[in-house]
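Researcher: Sequence recovery benchmark, item below. Answer with residues only.
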């Protein structure tokens, strides 16, 4: 039930209860029973709406991840957790965040109190950057942990730097996850996706594509997503192992094939995950940015930004919420501030691009309640005070939005 509707219902209940209390004492016992039942129903509905999910299941993303007795880097060590193990959240999160480097990337995250899935069931705090949520919801609906543990163990056994690990991972997935429940498929998608991205980062497979003599027509086909991967032995091998080709600033490089992942998972996962896959694949199929410029019509770019924001708003507990937030943020703020090769305003005159002005007004008309529309209204107010110029004050406003979490 929507929160507003429940508030009205609760108010109505209170009116009934007050009226009951003023009735004759002869019916006091009956009224008291009815009152208790109404209050219990109201409390139950409140708990349904406002209560936290019963269970959050995390996969450990890196080897030798520390579990500590207290949150923070100075907490006493409880144990080390291995990549691919699972822990369950206990509903406690630190009231502060740390910035730590894991696998060459920096994460700014709090610490989560968790219990391990080992027989000893160790309890402690783990830095959030090393945790990947794979399930959030009622305990009775949790995915088959043994099945997921077998998947993570197999993926961990594959060397991420060897190209053939990709085909082995795909073979295992097709054989062991042919028709799972949506929540199992959600978790499998996340774990498989993370492994393929690990291969992409650690495999240095760009050394392979450097051996290919690319033609101008190849670049155009890769950019359009229409390159025939069977064209030569190297690209055919990449395709067999779950990779496609990307291009940026004139350079070709291998990337995990999100089309293959989308085709396999999109009709197996939950509805929110399917929406995520479709949004993500749209960006993969037709990249919106290249060489410091927006490569799709600005109106299409803005529509993507709105789509990501709406998805984030509709799915606050989504398993990949961090990725969703980053998509919504960078695309939305790019609509506000432009980029080097697609500037929001003329660098010399500071006059706002007609195209940006048109898109801003379109968003205000079509999506007035969105976060992006609110930012546009604020920015237009600043621009108006500056004589309809995109001055340093406007840039400072957008820069501050970038700095926010």
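Model:
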């Amino acid at each position: 039930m929507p929160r507003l509707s429940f508030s009205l219902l609760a108010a109505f209940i209170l009116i009934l209860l007050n009226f009951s209390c003023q009735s004759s004492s002869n019916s006091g016992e009956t009224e008291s029973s009815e009152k208790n039942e109404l209050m219990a129903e109201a409390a139950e509905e409140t708990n349904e709406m406002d209560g936290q999910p019963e269970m959050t299941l995390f996969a450990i993303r890196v080897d030798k991840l520390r579990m500590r007795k207290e949150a923070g880097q100075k907490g006493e060590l409880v144990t080390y957790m291995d990549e691919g193990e699972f822990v369950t959240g206990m509903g406690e999160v630190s009231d502060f965040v740390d910035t730590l480097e894991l696998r060459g990337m920096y994460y700014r995250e709090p610490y989560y109190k968790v219990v391990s899935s080992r027989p000893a069931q160790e309890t402690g705090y783990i830095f959030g950057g090393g945790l990947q949520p794979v399930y959030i919801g009622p305990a009775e609906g949790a995915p088959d942990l043994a099945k997921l543990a077998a998947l993570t163990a197999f993926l961990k056994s594959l060397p991420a730097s060897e190209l053939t690990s990709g085909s082995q991972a795909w073979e295992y997935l097709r054989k062991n996850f042919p028709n799972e429940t949506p929540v199992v498929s959600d978790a499998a998608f996340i774990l498989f996706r993370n492994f393929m991205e690990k291969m992409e980062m650690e495999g240095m497979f760009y050394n392979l594509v450097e051996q290919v003599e690319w033609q101008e027509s190849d670049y155009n086909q890769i950019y359009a997503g229409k390159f025939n991967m069977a064209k030569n032995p190297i690209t055919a091998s990449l395709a067999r192992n779950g990779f496609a080709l990307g291009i940026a600033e004139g350079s070709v490089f291998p990337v995990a094939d999100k089309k293959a992942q989308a085709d396999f998972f999109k009709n197996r996962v939950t509805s929110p995950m399917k929406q995520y896959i479709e949004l993500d694949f749209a960006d993969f199929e037709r990249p919106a940015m290249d060489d410091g410029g927006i490569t799709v019509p600005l109106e299409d770019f803005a529509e993507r930004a709105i789509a990501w924001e709406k998805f984030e708003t509709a799915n606050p507990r989504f398993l990949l919420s961090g990725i969703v937030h980053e998509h919504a943020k960078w695309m939305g703020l790019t609509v506000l501030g432009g980029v080097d090769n697609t500037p929001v305003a003329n660098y010399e005159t500071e006059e706002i691009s007609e195209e940006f002005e048109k898109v801003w007004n379109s968003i205000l008309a079509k999506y007035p309640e969105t976060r992006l529309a609110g930012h546009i209204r604020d920015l237009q107010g600043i621009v108006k005070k500056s004589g309809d110029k995109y001055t340093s004050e406007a840039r400072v406003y957008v820069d501050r939005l970038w700095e926010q979490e």
